[in-house]
Amino acid sequence: MSAELAEGLARYLRSRLPGSAEVTVDEIAQISGGASRETFRFRARYRDAAGGDVERRLILRRDPADSLIETERRNEFEAYRAFFGTSVPVPEVLWLEEDPAHLGSPFFIAVEVCGFEANPILLQSEPFIPLHRKIGERKWTILGEIARHDPKELGLDAVMKPAAPDTAWKTQLDYWEGVIDADELTPQPIIRWAIRCLRQNPPPPAQKISVVHGDFRSGNFLYDAEGTIHAVLDWEMAHLGDPLEDLGWSFNRVWCYGRDDRRGGLLPREEAIAIWERASGLRADPVALRWWELFNCVKGQGIWLSAAKAWNDGTNRDPILVYASWFPTNAQDRHALELMGEL
Amino acid sequence: MKPDIVPVLKDLEARLVGVISPKIQPAYHGGTIAFVGFMLGILADEWDRSADRLVEENRAIRAIFAAASPGTADPVLLDRLRALAQVVEPNVRVSALKAANDALRAALIDLHVAVERTDSEEARRIDTMIRRELVASTERRALSTANF
Fold this sequence. Notes:
The complex is a heterodimer of chains A (about 350) and B (about 150).
Chain A lengths: L1 H15 L4 E12 L5 E10 L5 E10 L7 H14 L9 E5 L9 E5 L20 H17 L2 H4 L13 H16 L5 H12 L9 E3 L8 E3 L5 E4 L6 E3 L1 H8 L18 H12 L5 H28 L5 H8 L2 H11 L4
Helix pairs in contact in A: 3-8, 5-9, 6-9, 7-9, 9-10, 9-11
Chain B lengths: L4 H16 L6 H41 L7 H12 L7 H23 L4 H20 L8
């Protein structure tokens, strides 16, 4: 697979680098799989149009052969493109290719942000424990910055589906209830209860429509041993919506890697809220935020149930899908019960 | 079988996660091995308790159904609940218990919706029983390694 992929990538780069010569691709290594995207790192070397020798460490993000999530691929690419160079650190993206002829399925290529960690469990060991405050401050500041940006100024209103302040909640809840309807393999009495609660008590209208990352959590940013965050990754669920959706997702108990009350394994919820409010210039209304936290239990369960179905159907037999279903589902139910006042 | 399954699974988990996966290249495949190790740990949690948990849960849900009266659900739903309350699983294989559990939990959802819509003491009593059982079900299903 590697030789074929290297050849395909080299051919593609030749087509995208006018005047380049002696293009080679090697050191291909898969970084992650999962149900939606395969991610590889690789080294590209070539002589550029000016005759200089160039070496670049790049990332390939490719859809599985049977992927149907076209709009999300473009959303992800455009989110990276839009935020690059702003106060929100992201990798630089180079090319989005939607023709499957080149590498078997659509893909995009980005510049690799090298030498840092993403593992959220590693944050619970030395030397990172004394850095929790610093990393947490930065994490929720970045999230606030995402919320603060204007989607129109970023050009993302032309790419992403529009959202309205009074119906953003319904769009998301309808979507994820639909996912659960389609993908559950066993009945889900707790999450169905949560859905009823959410519909019966909709949140106040969003104070603004922002870009919502959709999966902002410990595990989706690159950090170093000094506690600096270098890039926010995995924007494939990015969309326009209520910025409290992102804040709520970051508080999901499933991400409490310290197995205590610190959200994302880093900071208590109230401190994270204060940081986010300072950075975003917005207010995290307690009632609205609770709604979005409970919604995120529904969304989370939708994701874990979809992983189970994809493996069960044979669509994707990557073992991570089994783990992504077995490990979080009961904790997700318990978080929903906690938010409904039952624990 | 000896040695017992649970300590074997736990030992395999520790080996795969702590010893073998860090040595596997590329790191992606090492990560996959680590996930397999974590899953063996989950199976260790489930192996011994799975049948007991399902028996207890099925019994608890049937007790709720037996307590539901005409004031809490429509006749069609009540008939379904009464029929499910009287079912006895053919054996204690996990697959049989699980199939019964699925049918019971699906009906539990319908009963929960029904009592939420009914304004009566009886409906509130059943609603309380359902809420307590749903909390208890998550305690039975808790993983030793869970984040919450």
